[in-house]
Amino acid sequence: MAVDERFRGLPDEDYRFTLGISRSSVDEYFAPTADEVEILSERRHWFDTARELYAGLLPDGEPIAEEFCHVAADWIENSTNGSEKNQPDSTLSRLIHVSAQLEPDVVLIRLDESGRPVTVGGCVCFPSSWSLPEKLGLSVAEVHDIVPGMNTVVGARVDRLLQSLKPGEGWLRSNWSSEASPARNQHPRQPTPELTSPLDPKRVWLRREHQLLFRLPQTGGIVFGIRLELTALQQVLDN
């Protein structure tokens, strides 16, 4: 029996922290999908409703944001919903303008003088119970402190990976969780239900984040892309 592509790559073991990275095309990652219209409509809704909850940028992240917007122009040109007209003046507004035309969320990371990766900006409309603006200025390790045991298991490897990225290379990994809601936006400000026992498979969704890392050639800034995929658990069981 052929494997449904939605289920390919789902783990066949208990959850554990692992990097599990592989090479990937950056252009293909940001290419539009069949769900583009629906996803971009929702992204624009959240930016219009409360952009301060979903976007942010520190001063030392502005050069990285400007370069990302320049690189992303090619992806937007290939999008059926893309538009480079009437771009706003501020760097943050330009970043939001570009991100509203891309399906994945993006987080911008800068290596400080000691080589420590620090979160300096981005646009995240579909967070998994976290807030991008609250993470600005924190190191990647500090961002992950909220996840019990993660830094102990893979923290040092994550830092080494970010420090070793070379321009032109894209690296992809996937992360997953089980949720009680199919909502893309699970910002802490959003009323999101929690899983309760006994579980009903019809009320459980697998939330997969396809995460891409690549380095920009001019600033050396790192882009962390998050492309969300939601699948009803019942569909997995039926398959």
Please explain how this structure is put together.
This protein has one domain. The mean pLDDT is 87. Helix 3 packs parallel to helix 4. A 7-stranded antiparallel sheet has the order 1-5-6-7-3-4-2. The protein starts with 21 loop residues before the first strand and ends with a helix. Strand 6 and strand 7 (222-232) form a beta hairpin. The protein has 239 residues and is α+β, with helices and mostly antiparallel strands. Helix content is 33%, strand content 22%.
TL;DR?
By secondary structure, the chain is α+β, with helices and mostly antiparallel strands. It has helices at 26-30, 36-54, 62-77, 91-99, 132-135, 140-143, 150-164, 233-238, and strands at 22-24, 55-57, 105-111, 117-123, 170-179, 205-215, 222-232.
List keywords for this structure.
239 residues; alpha+beta; 8 helices
Give the overall shape: globular
Oligomerization status of the protein chains: single chain
Physical arrangement of strands within the biggest beta sheet: 1-5-6-7-3-4-2
- Estimate what percentage of residues fall within beta strands: 15-25%
Class from secondary-structure proportions: alpha+beta
Order of helices and strands: EHHEHHEEHHHEEEH
Number of domains: 1
Alpha carbon gyration radius: 18 Å
What is the percent of helical residues?
25-40%
Mean pLDDT across the residues is 87
Count the strands?
A: 7
The major β-sheet equals:
7 strands, antiparallel
- Low-confidence spans: pLDDT under 50, at least 5 residues? none
Instruction: Determine the number of helices (DSSP H or I, runs of at least 4 residues).
Output: 8
Cα-to-Cα separation, first versus last residue: 10 Å
